[in-house]
Design a protein that fits this description.
Helices cover 28% and strands 32% of the residues. The protein is α+β, with helices and mostly antiparallel strands. It has a single domain (23-217), classed as Cyclic phosphodiesterase (Cyclic Phosphodiesterase, Chain: A, Alpha-Beta Complex). It has a five-stranded antiparallel sheet, sandwiched between helices. A four-stranded antiparallel sheet has the order 3-1-8-9, with helices on one face. Strand 4 and strand 5 form a beta hairpin. The longest helix is centred in the middle third of the chain and has 17 residues, at 120-136.
Length: 225
């Protein structure tokens, strides 16, 4: 009997140039490979517990400056151009991975994250410059101060009453705390990206639509924290 060759249809991502649907956009600072590896290690440890948490794919780790949500393609093109002059005078700087935390608090955890410290004054200036560009195009802008972090996981609705206690206990585990502290790293922020996010059954896929290099990084600026 002749065996038929089964062909699997590959899932094609949405056309980046499509004008039929809105684009899900955010503006972010990408992470270096070493930080992605650290996120992967932390998520690997935390995800061994049977918790109601959607863990991130480490390769998508980033520092979000502004989340825009669904944007019409023509407005996305205007934004792409508007960000160039807005970021042209912003300087590169350094940040450092910090401690683990949650939003809004340990009694009601909704987001589990890895904090980022360092030259937060430069980061605030970068955040404000992007916000100003967004306002010129009448995009809504959050007024809350930026709390720099890398999202590790998002808690699903209606977790058990014992989840906050178990999470707090796990985050204080000596092995995990040692990993976070000993693997802490400092790295330069040299560009900002405009990113399109595709949501799928296996998680989010990110596509960089534009890159905006910052003014050259100077090691002497480390003293200006």
């Amino acid at each position: 009997m002749r065996k038929e060759k089964i062909r699997f249809k590959k899932e094609r991502p949405p056309d980046a140039a499509s004008t039929d649907v809105d684009w899900r956009l955010f503006i972010a600072v990408p992470m270096p490979t070493a930080a992605v590896v650290l996120v992967n290690q932390i998520v690997s440890i935390l995800s061994t517990s049977d918790w109601p948490v959607r863990w991130v794919s480490p390769e998508t780790a980033h520092l979000t400056l502004h989340f825009l949500g669904d944007v019409a393609p023509e407005r996305a093109q205007l934004l792409r151009m508007a960000l160039t002059p807005a970021l042209a005078q912003q300087s590169a700087f350094t940040i450092q991975t910090g401690h683990l935390g949650v939003f809004p608090d340990l009694q009601r955890p909704r987001v589990i994250w890895l904090g980022l410290d360092g030259q937060t004054n430069y980061l605030s200036a970068l955040h404000a410059a992007v916000a100003a560009a967004l306002r010129t195009l009448e995009f809504p802008v959050e007024t809350r101060d930026l709390r720099a972090h890398l999202t590790l996981g998002r808690v699903r609705d209606n977790p058990s009453s014992g989840f906050p206690v178990n999470l707090r206990r796990r985050m204080n585990d000596p092995e995990l705390r040692t990993l976070v502290e000993e693997s802490s790293m400092r790295f330069p922020v040299t560009e900002v990206q405009l990113i399109r996010s595709y949501l799928g059954k296996t998680g989010a896929r990110h596509e960089t639509l534009a890159r905006y290099p910052l003014l050259p990084y100077s090691p002497h600026s480390d003293q200006e924290t």
